[in-house]
Input
Amino acid sequence: MEKEKLRLDKYLWAIRLFKTRSQASNACDKGKVKFKITHTKASHAVQVGDEYEVKTENKRWVIKVISLLFKRVQYSEAINFYQDITPMEELDRIKFQAATFNTGKRMSKQGRPTKKDKRNLDEFME
Output
């Protein structure tokens, strides 16, 4: 027996687009979730075949609901409940950002001197 109604925020949380249900609800409230080009409330009832545009911190998703998911499951199972139809331009932008991401680690031979460098400097100054 399948339940007839599923809230949008609960669905987005269950398919693991958001870490918590409150984050999914806040995204809906702030207008980061669209259904048919209009902003959607967290209480919107999800139906099979619906397409949503969801903006998360890192990516702008476009998903199509394949099946309803009422509880949170592991990622490998959750991806079977929606279809990612994100445009190629967005995927290319994400790949470009990942390629130019700076880890914050210093390049070798640059930055602060090592202990060996300090010893060599001290010997040179004597």
Summary: The helical segments are 8-14, 21-29, 75-78, 88-99, 115-125.
